[in-house]
Fold:
Amino acid sequence: MTTRHGKVRWRLRRSGKKDVMLPGEPHTAEFDEAYQNAVLGRPAPVVQMPGSASPRSLKAAYRLLKKTDEWLALDDKSSTRYQQTIERILSMPAGGKAMLGDGPVEDLKRSHVKSILSAFRDTPHMERIVLICLRKLIMVAIDEEWIEVDPTYKMTRNPQTDGHKAWPLEIMAKYEARWEVGTRQRTAYALALWLGNRVSDITRLRWVHQTKKHIAADGEIHTVDGFEFVQFKGRKRGKKLFLPMTPMLDRELAPLSRDTETVLVSSRGGAYTDGSLSTRMADWCRDAGIEPGYTMHGLRKALGVKLAEADASTRQLMEMLGHKNIAYAELYSREASQTRLAVKAMEKVTKIEEARSSRKFRS
Structure:
């Protein structure tokens, strides 16, 4: 028979056995090898097709990962970063012509994970992302019951640097002294500081997002003004975030016109793009005599530090800043003043000890 692609194949029929298709013409090497394999009952050699994934391999886990709700909920920036990293991992050599992605997940040992991570040791942040990506693949394998043990269990890769610098009070004072309330420079600063918004949310924040909520506290119903919106980074999940309007932010926004669509308006009368706002903030900081390195995200981090210093719980930090990962909330807590927290902790100890001493003397 001739296939639709023009290739000739012969059908070998034997009583009580499945038909076998033989490639090529009789008496050719290809035909004779296939014929001998069929007669002797040998399985045909497995040919790896380009782009295919071996069963239960890391590459197969990656294909399944891309279909999960967790993956589909990622924002474009995160999914692109993880995709590039995973594909880089899968293409790493594994001996001979084999690549890491072709190997079975069950063969991936802890020593192999350490070896993979060591290739990225010179870039600590990348090393951490590689570990995250490996864990995603491994969790797929565990869910599919390909393996039972996580070879990355309790492995950590935390770079010494923690990214954007939180703005200290003296830097905030310099910025506020340069830019008055009501200016776009001050408004961008206030939205980042008092709402803890990312740049992508500040550029998209609209007056229609302002709303009132009724909450029960201390046995009473309170009306709270604030902004409610879906964070741009988590837009695929669609979860709304309500951030209360504090007196500090209310004073900052009071002079602004409500006739504009977005809260922050550029000099051209429209909304900023994410990139342009980040660039402009760098310019505004320079004009205020502030050294490079203090960013919009650093103001968000400064709010996290303020919350931690006010003894906000980890859960409160996560809800205010819209974090899913508890590790980020704990990072802000670590930025809180060590001196202040230490003093406050010892004040509590002192209070307990004084009360104990007082009871001893009375007895």
